[in-house]
Predict the structure of histidine kinase.
Amino acid sequence: MLVLIIACAPASQAQHDPRILVLSEADSRLPLTTSILAGMQEVLSEDFMTRGDTYVEYLDMFRFEEPQQQRLLRDLLIARHGGATLDAVVVLGPNAMRFVLANRDRLAAGAPIVFTGISKGQYTTLPAAPKTSGTFSGYDPIAAVALARRLQPEARELVIITGAGIYDRQWREAAGSMFADRYQGLSVRYLDDMALGAVQAEVETLDPSSIVLMLTFTQDATGRRFIPRDAVRAISARSGAPLYGVYDTYIGHGIVGGVVDDSRETGRSIGRSIRMILDGQDPPQIATISPYPAVDWRELNRWGLDRAALPAGTKIKFYEPSVWERYRTAILTVAAILLAQTATIAALIVQRARAQRAQSALALERQQLIHVSRNMRLGQLSGALAHEINQPLAAILANAEAGARLIRRTPPDIEQVSAILDDIATDDRRAAGIIAGLRRLMVKGETNFEQVDLNDVVRATLLLAESEFIARGATVQQDLSAVPLMVQANMPQMQQIVLNLTLNAAEAMSELPAEQRVLRVATRQLPNGKAELAVEDRGPGVEKGFREEVFRPFFSTKDTGLGIGLSICRNIAKAHGGGLDFVDHPSPGSRVELTLPLTGGAA
């Protein structure tokens, strides 16, 4: 056992350094003793082992249990400590308590005794002694079996294991009186006073539904000594059924669990009693540490036992949380972020789809508006177009009648008929060209782009509107580039721009005398790789402050105008990568310029 003398009291409260003797019935390797001493140290401070006189003695009764050995040990301890005045004696275990009571007069006369490691039942078998206090241990095999039955309700057998040492035999005797050969529907079998290998062989054949209660195992039948915790580990490794125990030091070394004392808290309780004694108070009343259910999470999983069957308040040791439990906050945070990002992306996709639909609708509306604007212009040209078409048709009719008369002559004038037929073909091609140009202008929704010569666009459009200019009394001067100006464009939309700009110029000069109604249409290649189309007139012009206003939709300086022509023309120009603007002009009137990027086909 362990003997420990601890100096705890302040110098102001004692005339001498306090002397405390702690006797342990086991040896220094027992984990239970180590845990109790650690709890005492928590209460009595770090320096209690160094201040004053401290004595540590281990009786080691499990290995040296012969009466002669015990007498020699008694004489040695009396020789060491019998002449000293002890302030307290701490006793760990019932066998150490019997040893101290039998030798108290010579070993620790008059010293208060503080004990632990003794149950209430064991305490009643001890002689009454004055100045005795301590903490009862609550080792409860019955409670351990009750816990096991909650986890293994299908169990039909209880196997109880004890060793062959003196302390093991005491536990075997106590277990026999508690469980006998049958306990609450369980058949009870004892594995005691056997070699460790024989115990392992027995438990290896057990059905997994069996309950194995491991009490203590300090020595086997061959005389081999063990630290009980090591024996538990060896037996558990071979067992075919779950193990349970009554010591908290077994948890983590092979048992599923049990109803156990907190050995560290037991040490703290002893430390508090010693402090009261050293402070001059009467020994406190005997305290009781309430045992609690505790299990090893790893063993629960090993045997597939249901955690939900555990009683309320069970301490789960060596718990290994799942990924969800360990990182729940992080997972929820990441999930929230991903959800927010997904929602954002979805919203952006929906928004983009809506924007694309809106753009498509806007483009369709723009095409329709362009078509309406173009048809309005064609409506204005309808009279001139009818005149232009009637001219070749009338010529065709006159030539056809003349040819018919010449054919009927005798002899027919073949040479004259041939010339008439050439005229008919020429007039037909002229009418067909006018109709083709008109159809091209009237095409709805045309969006195909192709390489066209800007000069050809101007020529075709001016030819189509020639009669309108004549009707308005306007003269058109063409100053076109000598080289082709190839641009990637939509032919009808380019014609619409030229038609709008030239007719606007002719309308602007309607108040001028006929000889002054001259508009100029010019094209050229710019140094920056663009083509330019300029339309100049001699009308009143557009003031600088209104040059941007005229491009706004529905802005018009004419009472009968809708104000959409120039707005549409600028949109067309921008869609072609160009621009349309009024610019300063030294001569009277206005100058509007269309610029378009040249393609590789430009000269």
Summary: Residues 328-408 form the longest helix (81 residues). Residues 1-15 have pLDDT under 50 and may be disordered. The radius of gyration is 58 Å.
